[in-house]
Design a protein that fits this description.
The complex is a heterodimer. By secondary structure, chain A is of the alpha+beta class. In chain A, 35% of the residues lie in helices and 20% in strands. Chain A is built from 22 helices and 19 strands. In chain A, strands 2, 3, 4, 5 and 8 form a five-stranded mixed beta sheet that branches. A five-stranded antiparallel beta sheet of chain A has the order 10-9-19-18-17, with helices on both faces. Chain A has a three-stranded antiparallel beta sheet with strand order 1-6-7. In chain A, α12 packs parallel to α14, α12 (297-306) crosses α15 (362-371) and α12 runs antiparallel to α18. The longest helix of chain A has 28 residues, at 13-40. By secondary structure, chain B is mostly helical. Chain B has one domain. In chain B, 69% of the residues lie in helices and 4% in strands. Chain B has 13 helices and three strands, in the order αααβββαααααααααα. Chain B has helices spanning 16-45, 50-71, 74-94, 120-139, 146-166, 170-186, 191-211, 213-221, 234-246, 271-307, 311-335, 353-372, 378-389; strands at residues 101-104, 107-113, 116-118. A three-stranded antiparallel beta sheet of chain B has the order 1-2-3. The chains are: A alpha+beta, B mainly alpha. At the A-B interface, α1 and α2 of A face α1, α6, α9, α10 and α11 of B. Chain B: Keywords: Cell cycle, Cell division, Cell membrane, Cell shape, Cell wall biogenesis/degradation, Glycosyltransferase, Membrane, Peptidoglycan synthesis, Transferase, Transmembrane, Transmembrane helix.
Chain lengths: 589, 390
């Protein structure tokens, strides 16, 4: 049997040995090469590999919450999930798409559009999902569906505090308002960790822990959520009722400078950025300056009293239709006779104020305006705060001196007005407004800007403004005495003159009048409907907000309601009662 | 003595060492295919065991083929060599037909058999071993004369060249030329022809490589893959990093990272890189030693057949040794950056049913030869002598 091929007597054996030898040599060479790679060059190769498969991940840090003075959150970050798909895999799972759509509560066409509308390897299906929902989706185990962790900033008050708080961008950095001003404090420091990743960027395992993530710190603001809410709704109602362009208001504690509410309208919903309108984002209470008008009169009087140019019992003859200064004609709405200081304020006499100013050295008025905070940023620390302008006194003409007396030729912000009136209410001590909570019982350092007696006199005279026949009677609050001042100023047209029919209406006041606790400034710009006076448009906003704020801050009423009615309410005229009852600017309407 | 039939005819004791090495490599291959393919399988199909399950089926099939091939009458294989060669050529033609042929990445290498895909070039290698062995044995002395004995071989190589390079499958054709050349060389081709053939084939392969620039880039990239780590040298760089990361003892089975989409072909042609990363140099050396011992056993079986005068069986064994040992060296060398980057499957380890089954068929025939010419211990030799004298 073995000899079927006699022609093939014998194979050359040495050739087979050579063949076997070659294979053997080859395998030995393989082993040598393995040694060279895995022992000699291992260091270099590992280093090259580390550049590819090691990844240094940031550990996400949550941004700190913004809390109101009672610890109620105004802005909080919550961890949320995003669901994304790899279309290369997901497109093969069409039969399971309805399942996913149902789990996400998405219409199937929307899911299809998103799955096909993304990139070749990545498409977001749903973002900002609650973690439970994402876990349920992952429980379906559909190939090609993945999640990643995001954080979402949520503002429980919505539009009510939006211009004050501002917002964060997609990277979680504050870019407006408190979020910007206190970004350093609020933001966390991401930690680091080194891990292995696959070539698609997915983490495989953690190799080494770096510094852990430092969570952002909570920020306790001086804002009171409820007062903020009342101020916003009252202001919004006034702006809507009088078809005004915009409005803003500030509520401040006169002793500590704590800002309790700071509102601006129109506002925006910070929880839904889709209705983005840049014009809505400004915080008007600190960013918009305007010519305040009559609300400046108390400071004219304070400056004149302080330097002795007039005394508290001085009287002024305003019995003229036209008080001529240089080429200008200064007028009052109603012609009065001889007025004392209380009446100048109560009836808001421009002629009286101009006469006082003309008796006062301009340097002293300028100094008064500057020391109560006009013409400079308040220091409350909000971004975008405007300093306003108080022109240097050396350049004042006689006409400018007269106009300054009743609030023209100067521009201010609502926050400055509140702080300046706060100085009057705080017996002549100016306290810098602040957004940070001051612990109860802490004595806040202020600076004296006028003598105690001058401040006390002004408090009394300003209380008269709210009484019967005063311009601010709509600011009266049952059970409390209120002091304040109205302002109705023509809007500058930006060409050196004024619009004929466009005004800014202002009310600034504090309560209770004889031991003031809270001060509030309300500005409504360019109302176009109804009686466009500060006492009609802005004062009711003050009344609604301040009455709520006094109760919320546990300020005891000055007198029982019955006594208040006997003293105040009965003395109202029918027309006044009707207006009062209409509750211009009341939140209920 | 009457044989029971053409199948289950070889009933002598097979080479147990070779048996065990083949089975160990099959099992080890299955484990490594799972480890290397799990990330890709998970990503592409959602089932991490996708490739491992298939490889397990192929492995079982290959083991069965291995066993039955070892029991089939060795003479039967010799009779089968022409039909098998014809079948191979037919299949190689079929890959170009639509519906029957399957194209992956522009290469027509597979035939659809309903559930499984057959790679005809693997069948061809098996058939070619039988065919050339038989041819060399039949021609005998005439092999030395080109006009009488040698030219048909060149015709076959030419046809195969056209079919394989059209696929295109450069690597398989190189293997075909190598196997044919080795069998002619071992079959006693005069040295003059050996030198001439070496020169001609070397020039031809070189010209082919140069004519296609991407092949040239592939051929030169292996010398310094770091010159273009994200282009021509990409795959090799990932492979080298895997070996470096593994070090001497490896990072542990399953803990490799390069298989996570860094290393292309991680469970087929570049599976040694995964072995090197997870089991380290120790694993690579152990594998090389297993291949060496297996090759040695195959060589020994061939030598016994040659000593018994069965030139066909001997040549077939040597051919299988070339296929098995040669492809092992080539695949490992490519993985380690010692050879141009070209796809060679690691024998008995890499994923792929066709190569596994047909290599096991060839190894089975070798085991069958070992049954026919068993290695005799000193006592058995003495006993046999007694029987003959008695």
């Amino acid at each position: 049997m073995p000899d079927r091929h006699p022609a093939m007597a014998v194979l050359p054996a040495w050739r087979a040995a050579v063949m076997m030898g070659l294979v053997g040599v080859g395998l030995v060479a393989i082993m040598v090469q393995a040694w060279r790679l895995q022992v000699e060059n291992a260091g270099f190769l590992r280093e090259q590999g580390a550049q590819r498969y090691l990844r240094h991940l940031p550990l996400p840090a949550m941004r700190g919450a913004v809390l109101d003075r009672n610890g109620v959150p105004l802005a909080i970050s919550v961890p949320v999930k995003a669901v994304w798909v790899d279309p290369q895999l997901f497109n093969h799972q069409v039969t399971r798409w309805p399942q996913l759509a149902q789990a996400l509560e998405l219409p199937l066409p929307t899911l299809e559009r998103r799955a096909r509308g993304g990139g070749a390897e990545f498409a977001f299906i749903a973002r900002q999902l609650p973690p439970e929902r994402a876990a349920a989706v992952m429980g379906l185990h559909i190939p090609g569906v993945y999640t990643l962790t995001e954080s979402r900033r949520y503002y429980p008050l919505g539009a009510v505090a939006a211009p004050l708080l501002g917002f964060t961008n997609v990277d979680g950095r504050g870019i407006e308002g408190v979020e910007l001003a206190y970004n350093q404090w609020l933001r966390g420091t991401p930690g680091k960790e080194t891990g292995l990743q696959d070539n698609r960027g997915q983490a495989l395992s953690v190799v080494q822990m770096g510094p852990p993530a430092e969570q952002g710190r909570p920020l306790l603001l001086s804002i009171d959520r409820n007062i903020q809410y009342f101020a916003y709704t009252a202001l919004a109602a006034a702006v809507q009722q009088f078809k005004a362009q915009s409005g803003s208001a500030v509520v401040m504690n006169v002793h500590t400078g704590e800002v309790l509410a700071l509102v601006s309208y129109p506002s925006f919903n910070p929880n839904n950025r889709q209705d983005y309108e840049p014009g809505l984002y400004g915080n008007r209470a600190v960013a918009d300056t305007y010519e305040p008008g009559s609300v400046m009169k108390p400071f004219t009087i304070a400056a004149a009293l302080d330097d002795g140019s007039i005394d508290p019992n001085s009287t002024f003859d305003v019995n003229t239709n036209c008080f001529r200064v240089a080429n200008y004609c200064i007028q009052d709405d109603v012609r009065h006779g001889v007025l004392n200081l209380a009446q100048v304020l109560k009836y808001s006499s421009n002629i009286g104020a101009a006469q006082i100013s003309l008796r006062t050295p301009p340097a002293d008025l300028y100094h008064m305006l500057r020391t109560v905070g006009f013409g400079q940023v308040s220091g409350a620390g909000l971004p975008g705060e405007a300093p306003g302008t108080v022109p240097a006194w050396q350049g004042w003409s006689i006409a400018r001196r007269a106009a300054m007396a009743y609030g023209y030729g100067i521009s201010v912000t609502p926050l400055q007005l509140a702080a300046a009136y706060g100085a009057i209410a705080n017996d002549g001590v100016y306290v810098q407004p602040s957004l940070q909570r001051v612990n109860d019982g802490t004595q806040v350092q202020g600076s004296r800007v006028m003598p105690v007696q001058v401040a006390r006199d002004l408090q009394g005279w300003l209380a008269g403004v709210i009484s019967r026949g005063g311009t601010g009677f709509l600011a009266a609050i049952p059970g409390y005495t209120v002091a304040g001042k109205t302002g109705t100023s023509s809007m500058a047209d930006g060409k050196g003159g004024f619009y004929k029919n466009r005004v800014n209406t202002t009310f600034v006041g504090f309560a209770p009048a004889d031991h003031p606790q809270l001060v509030m400034a309300v500005v409504v710009r360019d109302p176009t409907q109804g009686w466009r006076f500060g006492g009609v448009v802005a004062a009711p906003v003050f009344r609604v907000t301040m009455s709520a704020a006094l109760r919320l801050m546990n300020v005891a009423p000055d007198m029982p309601a019955a006594q208040w009615n006997a003293q105040m309410a009965k003395r109202m005229t029918t027309a006044q009662e009707r207006l009062w009852a209409e509750g211009a600017g009341d939140a209920a309407q | 003595m009457k044989r029971p039939s053409w199948w289950l005819a070889e009933d002598g004791p097979a080479d147990t060492v070779l048996w065990w090495i083949i089975l160990v490599l099959l099992g080890f291959g299955l484990v490594m295919v799972y480890s290397a393919s799990a990330p890709i399988a998970q990503h592409a199909t959602g089932n991490a065991f996708y490739f491992a399950q298939r490889q397990a089926l192929f492995g079982a099939l290959a083991a069965a083929v291995l066993y039955y091939a070892s029991r089939v009458d060795v003479d039967f294989w010799e009779r089968l060599s022409f039909p098998l060669m014809g079948l191979s050529l037919l299949f190689l033609l079929l890959v170009f037909f639509p519906f029957i042929g399957v194209s992956v990445n522009g290469s027509h290498r597979w035939i659809n058999f309903l559930v499984i895909r057959l790679q005809p070039s693997e069948l061809l290698k098996f058939a070619l071993l039988l065919f050339v062995s038989r041819y060399v044995v039949r021609k005998g002395e005439l092999l030395g004369k080109f006009k009488e004995g040698l030219w048909p071989i060149f015709v076959v190589l030419g046809i195969l060249g056209v079919l394989l390079l059209l696929q295109p499958d450069f690597g398989s054709y190189a293997m075909v030329v190598l196997l044919t050349g080795v069998l002619l060389f071992l079959g006693g081709l005069p040295m003059g022809y050996v030198l001439l053939a070496g020169a001609v084939s070397g020039t031809a392969l070189g010209a082919l490589a140069v004519s296609a620039p991407y092949r040239l880039a592939r051929i030169t990239a292996f010398q310094n893959p770091w010159a273009d780590p994200y282009g021509a040298g990409f795959q090799l760089v990932q492979s080298l990093i895997a070996f470096g990361r593994g070090g001497v003892f490896g990072v542990g089975l399953g803990d490799g990272v390069m298989k996570y989409f860094y290393l292309p072909e991680s469970y087929t042609d570049f599976i040694l890189a995964v072995i090197g990363e997870e089991l380290g140099m120790v694993g690579v050396w152990a594998l090389a030693l297993l291949y060496a011992v297996a090759s040695w056993r195959i060589y020994r079986i061939g030598r016994r057949a040659a000593a018994a005068g069965d030139a066909f069986s001997a040549l077939f064994c040597y051919g299988t040794l070339t296929w098995f040992g040669g492809e092992a060296v080539l695949s490992m060398g490519v993985n380690l950056g010692a050879l141009p980057t070209k796809g060679f499957a690691l024998p008995l380890i890499s994923y792929g049913g066709s190569s596994l089954v047909f290599l096991c068929a060839a190894l089975g025939v070798v085991l069958g030869v070992s049954r026919r010419y068993p290695a005799l211990s000193a006592r058995a030799v003495a006993g046999k002598a007694e029987v003959e004298h008695g």
